Amino acid sequence: MRYLTFALAKGRLAEQTMGLLERIGMPCEEMKEKSRKLIFVNEELGLKIFLAKTSDVPTYVEHGAADIGVVGKDTIMEENRNIYEMLDLELGKCKMAVAGLPESKEKLEHSHSLTVATKYPNIARDYFYNKKHQTVEIVKLNGSVELAPIVGLSDVIVDIVESGATLRENGLVVLEDICPLSARVIVNRVSMKMEHERIMEVIDKIRNLIKEENK
Amino acid sequence: MLDFKLHTPIGVNDLLPEEARVKKTVCRNIEKIFEGYGYNEVESPMFEYIEVFSDEKMGSISPKQMFRFFDKDGNQLALRSDMTPPIARIAATAYQKSERPLRFCYFGNAFRDSVSYQGKKCEFAQAGIELIGAYGADADAEVIAMAVKSILSSGIKEFKLNIGEVKFFNAILAETGLDRETVEQLKDVIAHRNYVGMEKLIESSEMNESTRTLFNELPKLVGGKKIIDYTRKLTKSAEALKALDEMENLYDILVMHGVEKYVSFDLSMVNQLNYYTGIIFRGYTYGTGYSIVDGGRYDNLVSQFGKKTPAVGFGIKIDEVVKVAAKENPSFAENPTKAMIAFDTRGRKAAVETAQLYRNAGINIESSFITGNLDKNIEYMKEMNYESLLYFKDGENITYVRNTEEYGIIKADIKKSDLALPGKEEK
Prior knowledge:
The complex is a heterodimer.
Chain A lengths: L3 E6 L2 H12 L15 E4 L4 E6 L4 H7 L4 E5 H7 L4 E5 L5 E7 L3 H7 L3 E5 L2 H11 L4 E5 L6 H5 L4 E6 L3 H5 L3 E9 L1 E5 L1 H6 L1 H18 L2
Parallel strand pairs in A: 1-3, 1-4, 7-8, 7-9
Antiparallel strand pairs in A: 2-3, 4-11, 5-11, 6-9, 6-10
Chain B lengths: L16 H20 L3 E2 L5 E3 L1 H4 L13 E3 L5 E4 L4 H11 L7 E10 L11 E10 L4 H17 L5 E7 H10 L4 H12 L3 H10 L4 H9 L4 E2 L1 H8 L5 H20 L5 E4 L12 E7 L7 E5 L13 E7 H11 L10 E5 L4 H13 L5 E2 L6 H11 L3 E5 L4 E8 L3 E8 L12
Parallel strand pairs in B: 1-5, 7-9, 13-14, 13-15
Antiparallel strand pairs in B: 2-4, 3-4, 5-6, 6-12, 7-10, 8-9, 10-11, 11-12, 15-16, 16-17
Helix pairs in contact in B: 1-4, 1-11, 4-10, 5-10, 6-7, 9-10
């Protein structure tokens, strides 16, 4: 049997996904041990699982280095890769939003010279250009985006909002919602065809498990 | 500083002899299949007026993905971004009056600009066929059978060809009874293979329960003839049922061609190039994350160039096939030259003449430039992994050297008259 390879986004989502896999009878004991290994194998079931940086998961899946990936919708939107998006795991629910100081609301609605700071330039461009038909200046940052409006680098930010606590503590508010986010199961195009039954079985099992647990 | 002349631009690469040999073998094998069905090779230019590729009905490749430039008169040109539209142009212009089916094949490169640092190529070697002027299942089946046989000729054994039907998909879209905007959205999420988005859209839209079930099951509607029977129960659309009948008929003919083992129906398949109007198909194998052959029926494309005629065809992504074939068939990379000839000055004339005799008979032989040193020639022979060496000491005396796996180097002194020279008897 060929290995079915999973790429998981490092962090809490990977742990939650491992839990899901264990509950549908696809455990990977190797991963529970503390080690520096990057790739874990369950020989019995023909599974390979590896952890990757979140934004790299769609890349691994698109090229077929992994058959299946688990990653947030934000990354899927930002990376815009040619992959199958098969299932909403309903984990890590949050939203993509435009945020800023309360007084920037007016500028957001009427200005032609708005500056937007974000880790997600593609999502920001798509939202402002294609949905709002507004020309904006986008500045790409790599972290602590909340700083940008406070220190005057940008008028607003486009970022993930979970509880909104970070925003509140820095005197920022959500000005517009862009879209809801959650973790998704993605599948490589060729794997979807070559291993159709095996992959659909895994997906159906996870789908049923989620339905049951959300009852 | 970056010395540009030492590098190739991002997205293009050189082919070294081993890779080039695999590619050549793959292309030759495919060519034999194409010729076997009576297809004739045509060549279109590497660049054309951009209108050939950019018209919306020609394809989904946006001008942004094309390599564009201008001629002296300011007309916009583009490197060939898709092999099919130029052949449709040829069929519509050079064969405007022809009623008979045209069977064309091609080997060439297409160019598409891609996003940096995604590990994607900008230059693609393609081989394909276009059957222009023929309707019906027999024509579709011939083309599908040829696609399967071409891939098999590359030594790829684990291979699947999925067939979809644009008419079926459009019929079930119409069956939803949704307004145009929602239908477009639905088409878009399915074309982007975003099934999560599709489910959400289906759940939030008004439609009858059976249609909803059909869409929710769409990703699973993949398989052999059974899947067609199964799908019949899920739809009431007369158009969709008719399309399913046609697919079943096609399947029966594919059985006669002996290729059904490699073929599955995939009813979730959506055309990504706007020009497909009937069957669409894509081939997949292990060892590459991309499809290796894409094709389908495009009955409206040729009429864009002024001749109303149906057409069906496919293109093979040679680079992807080569990648897999190289792993599965090491013999494809083998050097077809296995012998060399060397000489001491006195033996030059005899060596040159003998080498020529071998070459005339179709035997590859390399002439060494290391003169007057047998040992150095043997070293070179080992490095090149050649099987035999003829070393002409003079016009008559030869040292015959063989490099064998079992015994290593074996030497024997022979006379020129001992050589089994090809064509000697005729003289």
